[in-house]
Amino acid sequence: MEERQISKAVIKRLPRYYRYLEEILNNGIERISSGELSSKMQVTASQIRQDLNNFGGFGQQGYGYNVKYLYDEIGKILGVHQIHPMIIIGGGNFGHALANYDFEKNGFVTKAIFDVRPELEGTFIRGIPVLMMNQLEDFISRETVEIAVLTLPKSQVAEAAQRLTRCGIKALWNFAHLDLDVPEDVVVENVHLVDSLMQLSYRISNSEEEQI
Amino acid sequence: MEERQISKAVIKRLPRYYRYLEEILNNGIERISSGELSSKMQVTASQIRQDLNNFGGFGQQGYGYNVKYLYDEIGKILGVHQIHPMIIIGGGNFGHALANYDFEKNGFVTKAIFDVRPELEGTFIRGIPVLMMNQLEDFISRETVEIAVLTLPKSQVAEAAQRLTRCGIKALWNFAHLDLDVPEDVVVENVHLVDSLMQLSYRISNSEEEQI
Questions:
Q1: pTM, whole model, 2 decimals?
Q2: So what's the ipTM on this one?
Q3: Topology of domain B84-195, per CATH?
Q4: Is the Cβ pair B203, A185 closer than 8 Å?
């Protein structure tokens, strides 16, 4: 596939395409027009054509998209056909919940959870070992780790991010409610829950203007 | 304050402004220029001026922004100075983690958690009662509830959303990995964790093109 510069907005929409295509595929549908996909996804058909054109000729005029092919190609673009080994930093409520989540299905495999509480040492969450923070550097030097998930309190997360990037970790999935200061070659994806709630409360008070 | 149509992109940035201004305020800083705010937030100064102009005259040329005033006004716009009563549907790992999160600070107060497992009946998470799903309609008719947080498995969430909107709930914070089909006057804010991870994996394989 040809390399192109793809806008962030398109990238943000790709996982949603992937999710819908999976559902359509599971329903045994082999071909779908941009019009049908449009009504399912509540995105305009022209938006869909435009987005998918970024990745070359998936569709044929008057014939629609090959669902399986499109699904696989978007999967490749998103990198979900590879294994992405992860570690979770922080075995509190959120770390625990994330360790229990079925991310493996899309290639995201959690190899260990790190915490500082000695009573958690030697325990397992869904078969995943809980290790101590002082084992972090050693673990990363021995094992392949691609993504570190940060579920630490705000006050501890900056130091943890620094330790991780010093060990060569290039991808952080950050749940702490602050923006991390990391080297340029490190990618950070934030899940800022409070920001999301604030957007909800804004939309509640302005819901008369809302469109999906 | 004058009513204006504000773009979604600006709304998405407001919680981040709010967060930075809180930090600046806590550091005892009373005035800040768009240039200083810009270097802290890694957004261009012209973007900041443009965003904040949406809400009228917060700044004065050559004098900067009054931090407290700007913080308060953005807080009002986001609706965080009001109480937003919430209920959490699903007392599993995620529901549990969310119940333990300090959202009250910004006005988001969880009043109850609903689950179907009888062994959870009568228990509390951080003082918040766990009620049974068959008490849902009755609870909502007696209490003021603004936001329902959905942390149910994918297979159960559509039905729960239907029950909630039938009871008049107008705001859903959805953690299930699907898009909800709700009446037009209901606002939904999604936290799709898998989508977020996929964006991260896309960015890992394309990180040479990255800019913050």
A1: 0.89
A2: 0.89
A3: Rossmann fold (3.40.50)
A4: no
